[in-house]
Each structure stands twice: as structure tokens, then as C-alpha cells.
Amino acid sequence: MKRIYLDHSATTCVKTEVLQEMLPYFTEKFGNPSSVHSFGREARIAVDKARNKVAAALGAKDREIYFTSCATEADNLALKGVAYANKDKGNHIITTNIEHHAILHTAEYLEKNGFEVTYLKANENGLVSAQQVADAITDETILVSVMFANNEVGTIMPIAEIGKVCKEKGVIFHTDAVQAVGNLPIDVNLLNIDMLSLSGHKFYGPKGVGVLYVKNGVKFEAIQHGGDHEFTKRAGTENVAGIVGLGKAIELANANIGIYAAKLQRMRDKLINGVLNTIPDVRLNGDPKKRLPGNANFCFENIDAESLLLQLDMKGIAASSGSACSAGAIEPSHVLLALGIPPEIAKGSLRMTIGEENTEEDIDYVLEVLPEIISKLRKTTSLYAEERYDKKLV
């Protein structure tokens, strides 16, 4: 059976070139980068080279790159680190209501510990404006955190404009750029970004390694304590092989980013147009133009997302939903609800995210089988509803 992977926003494979660069650091070059002997120095050089590659990809300085275990840790370090280091200046943080839970749950934690958080409301396309940020900033505001691109609906935020507002107001600006890195060109200076989180496994690097970029001069505290690793800001022996892999992956991604994005956008548009033109009672979620090149997110009326994903999987297609399964019950995505989509429709969401290995033939196959699956599921739902209604009458 044909197998098609359309869940690249969840994770990507490790490229062969990336794996080859990592392998020696599991076996021959296994030293601890904090050790002074040749094995340790060898590992330290590898970490420093990877740091340089990440910095070059972001338009940053080497000393501004901090390696973490993942983007969730980077988000926590950014929000908690800035909050506690700057609490003498104020206790107000601004974010949005459609952030990843790594941001939202960290903000909720800070609220329980004496900080005030404003959650800006995104519009129906998932956009937050620079004016909204400007209007929300007060004399007590110490941090603004707005995601670069939404992980579910793919909407790209006006990052440069938001960063400019923060710069003019003297407020630190952080962005969770997990979905953007590897898909969009990013220069932290041109975009007025003070802090940025990213994760290696989103752009063909390994899992278990991330980065927090912090502009020189930004005051933040460590939230994990132990040794003096990562310039005293992130204690713990570095994941050398993972760091090497992330460095190689971001180098490869940036070298080819324009061609890659154009390829994804072409297939994305074909997929979106095909779905909207062949399936009734469907809506495209997110901004139709300001969206990630490989993201297509839909809501199908009278469809259960879990059933849809299982049917697609039986056809060899791997995708995802904005819904989360909790105790056997499907709960609609907080992002889709924030966009004003009714819960009963949000439960029928489908996210398909395209990657480097996908082809036009893959999209043709999806457009061939998806209408049939939707039709079948709707008939089943309709028959089930009629049966329950008849029983009530009896």
C-alpha cells in the first residue's frame, strides 16, 4: 500500500546527511564537552561549530545561542527567565490566545506566581496585529511573546511590526518560531526579535534538542540549576550528537529555503483548491495568504476527526487533527475555538502538512481518496443519527 506522510508540522525525518554527521559523536567522539582532555575538546569544538551554524542561520552572534533539550524548554526558559529576572521592572506579560501549550501553560504558571498575563485575541484568520500589542503594553509590561507561525492553522504573524512596537516601548520580544524555522527565512535583527525558540526535529534534524536565541543585553535567569553549561543559563551535559545534528539540519535548510518553500506552496495550493472544489461543507482554517508554505488545515462539517484520521491511515495517509483525545473524548482545538469556529465543527478538523519528500502524485492520491472518505463518514453519521431518532419515537 502507498504510504504518504503529511504530518511534517508534528515532526520530520532525520536527513541522511544529518545522521551521518551525528554518528561519530555516539561512538568515536563521545567525550564530554566540559572535559579538558582531547576527547572533551573534540566534543566542545563540535558544539561550538553547531552554535556558529545556528547563529549564521538566524543572523545572530554565536554567544546569543543557547542549546536546550527542546523548544518547550526554550519557551519555559524565555518566559520564566525574563519574568523572574525583570520582576523589579514590572509583572505584566503579553501573549496570544492561540499559542502552543508550551507558552500558554507557562503563562498560566506565572499567573499563579504573581504575574499578570494579557492574552490577545486572534481574529478569525488567526492573526494578531501590532496595534493590539501596542494597545496592551503598560508601564508594567516586561515581555511580549507572540508565535511566528501557528502550529495548527499555519497563519504567519506580523513579527517585524510587533517587534518594532516592542523595541520602541522598551519591552522584550520573544517568538516561538518552531514552525517557521526551516520554512521561512529569518533574520532576528531585521525582524526586531529579542528571543526566539526553535526545535531540531521540525526541519529534518533530531528530536531531543532545541535552541533559545537571546539577544545580547537581554536580562534573563536560569530556571535549571547545576553546572555552568550554556554560559551558566542551562545546566546539564550537552547532547553533543543532537546539537551537531541540529546544526547540520539548519545549515541545510537555510541553504535551500527559497526553493523548498516554493515547492511546498505549489503543492499546498493544489491540495487546498482540490479539497475546497470537490468536498461540500468544508472551510479552510487560517489566513488564506499569510500561511506557512506547507500547511493546509480544514474543518469538515458532520465529521469526527478521530474517525477521519483512522480512515486516512487505512489508506496509507498520515495526517493530524487540531483536536486532542482526553479520556476517550475528542475535545476541539483551543486554536480553532479561538478563531470562532463552533465546537461541533471544530471537532471535524484535519491538518495536512507537506514536506520535502512529498510529490504532486501524493497530492493527487489524497484528492482521490479524501472525498470518498468524507462521503462515507457523513453517510454513517447520518444513518446513526436517524437510527437513534427512530428509537426515540418507538
Question: Can you tell me about this structure?
Answer:
The protein is α/β, with parallel strands linked by helices and about 400 residues long. It has two domains: about 15-255, Aspartate Aminotransferase, domain 2 (3-Layer(aba) Sandwich); about 260-394, Aspartate Aminotransferase, domain 1 (Alpha-Beta Complex). The protein has twelve helices and 14 strands. The strands form four sheets. The chain has a seven-stranded mixed β-sheet with strand order 2-8-7-6-5-3-4, with helices on both faces. Strands 9-10-14 form a three-stranded antiparallel β-sheet. Helix 6 (about 160-170) links the parallel strand 5 and strand 6 (about 170-175). The longest helix has about 35 residues, at about 360-394. The model is unreliable at about 325-330 and about 385-394 (pLDDT under 50).
Beta-strand proportion = 5-15%
The chain-level structural class is: alpha/beta
CATH class placement of the largest domain: Alpha Beta
Strand-and-helix sequence, N→C? EHHEHEHEHEHEEEHHEEHEEEHHEH
- What fold name goes in the CATH topology slot of the largest domain? Aspartate Aminotransferase, domain 2
